[in-house]
Amino acid sequence: EEQLVQSGAEVKKPGESLKISCKGSRYRFTSYWIAWVRQKPGEGLEWMGIIYPGDSDTRYSPSFQGHVTLSVDKFTSTAYLQWSSLKASDTAMYYCASLNSTRAFGNWGQGTLVTVSS
Amino acid sequence: QSALTQPASVSGSPGQSITISCTGTSSDVGGYNYVSWYQQHPGKAPKLMIYEVSNRPSGVSNRFSGSKSGNTASLTISGLQAEDEADYYCSSYTSSTFYVFGTGTKVTVL
Questions:
Q1: Within the 55-74 window of chain A, which residues sit less than 8 Å (CB to CB) from chain B?
Q2: Strand partners, A58
Q3: Could A108 and B89 be called an inter-chain contact, meaning their C-beta atoms sit closer than 8 Å?
């Protein structure tokens, strides 16, 4: 069964940078888009953007364009989500998920909790 | 792109059926058959329950079914069980921003 494993929880200060990861295994990583989804404490799911590992084609939600950067290393089957300058409002759980051929988020990582506090 | 609209909460007794609606526009739910539904238990990652409006992934109970009429999609849970108590989110492909999620619905089993 395909698997997405995310990096561990992070505690950062405002203004710091951060890069979290999502490693795929047991499937052809380069063939399926990877999406990133934010969930703030007690709130709903927000689609942030998607990246195609085969050629790094990337699409961002307008709400997140310019605030985060998606990247991928197809040789290690790892996708990344990064911030150059974190804000307290970035505190949230972040999930990666694979987008299958039916345009549904079929497989999810376990989530990475990011806490930004001074 | 605004989130798709779902009721904040829906409840039912064990064995009953409940339906969760997901209302969008002709640019998302109404324009494509790429509506999916996700179940999320507290502290857990979401799980795909329905894709392409009405299809169930392997392993998902046939008590879960999906449908769509115009700009509104629906998820029906029949024979409600205690384990169905969770948050449910719809999602749709959209012509403007690629994807959008619903506002989420908390299902309570009385």
A1: 59, 61-62
A2: A51
A3: no
Write out the two tokens for A100: 């299958």
**In this structure, are strands A92-99 and B47-50 parallel, antiparallel, or unpaired?**
unpaired
> Which residues contact residue B40 at a Cβ distance below 8 angstroms, ignoring those fewer than 6 apart?
A45, B46, B47, B86, B87, B88, B89
The pLDDT value recorded for residue A1 is: 76
For residue B57, pLDDT over 90 is answered with yes
- Cα atoms in the 13 Å half-sphere on the side-chain side of A53: 24
Tens digit of each residue's pLDDT (9 = 90 or more) over A33-63? 999 999 999 999 999 999 999 999 999 999 9
From the list B84, B51, B86, B83, the residue with the least C-alpha distance to B65 is B51
In chain A, residues with a C-beta closer than 8 Å to the C-beta of B27 are none
Cross-chain Cβ contact A102/B51 below 8 Å? yes
